[in-house]
Write a structure and sequence with these properties.
With 254 residues, this protein is of the alpha/beta class. It has one domain. It contains eleven helices and four strands. The chain has a four-stranded mixed sheet with strand order 1-2-3-4, with helices on both faces.
């Protein structure tokens, strides 16, 4: 497929990935969050203080704006707390559970892969090329084993076309994507992955998949709604911590 302009690709992908499919992914995420969130994932916030947060201000502002639509001390505190829980949660869920979630997404979007080690194949909304993607839960979980595993899986695919001049893809079409997190230049594994293979982290991955720049934040909003649900163990603990942190933010601004 010839390369397209970014705008044309987004228009093209809007036709490819229907609104109903995006809504189905969001609902799939909601059910996934509900079934897999455990109190031990939430307990880690008990001792948190405002000074402990190391999230970039731009990330906090994006999450606050897209998920809550306002920028009050309480909404910022909620965005901070929920982001920490999401990160902790993404780092602790088992690969088997992640695989089930990713398989469901691939099924919803008709992007299942025929290659071993590749979780999904999809038309990239940014460059219009078909991507062969191995998915990881969080950028924090990227390690040396993931680099070796991805490289081995990609070698197995390219080996099949070793003696064919007209490859169905370019090497940069073999990618690693993370459901959550962002690229960090200070992490060696991230740099290696970025240098050896194409990689999409968090919001970037979801935009390439759906063509929607805000899709990651819509999914994050769903996670926040699940955490605010009275039926979730630890909901009261979360509310208390949000109140405490929002008061600290007020005092900081005073």
């Amino acid at each position: 497929m010839a390369s397209l302009t970014r705008r044309n690709c987004q228009i093209f992908n809007e036709l490819l990935m229907k609104k109903t499919q995006k809504e189905a992914i969001i609902e799939c995420g909601r059910e996934f969050f509900k079934k897999t969130i455990k109190l031990d994932h939430i307990k880690s916030i008990e001792d948190l203080r405002l000074k402990d947060f190391k999230l970039k201000p731009t990330v906090v502002n994006c999450i606050t704006s897209y998920t809550l639509g306002r920028n009050t001390p309480k909404s910022v505190a909620r965005a901070l707390i929920h982001s920490v829980i999401l990160e902790t949660y993404a780092n602790k869920i088992s690969k088997k559970k992640v695989q089930r979630f990713v398989s469901k997404i691939a099924e919803i979007t008709c992007n299942t892969s025929n290659y071993e080690g590749i979780d999904m194949e999809f038309i990239d909304a940014i460059d219009g090329r078909k991507k062969y993607c191995q998915v990881l839960p969080s950028s924090k979980k990227v390690n040396m084993n993931d680099n070796w595993r991805a490289a081995a899986n990609f070698r197995n695919i390219t080996r099949q076309y070793e003696y064919i001049d007209d490859w169905p893809f370019e090497y940069e079409d073999l990618i690693v994507g993370t459901l959550y997190g962002e690229y960090d230049n200070s992490i060696v594994e991230h740099r290696l992955l970025q240098n050896s293979d194409c990689s999409y982290f968090g919001a970037d991955f979801w935009e390439h998949l759906t063509g929607d720049k805000t899709f990651y934040y819509k999914l994050t909003k769903t996670f926040s709604e699940v955490l605010d649900d009275e039926d979730i163990d630890g909901a009261e603990l979360i509310r208390e911590k949000i109140t405490e942190i929002s008061q600290d933010i007020k005092e900081l601004k005073a």
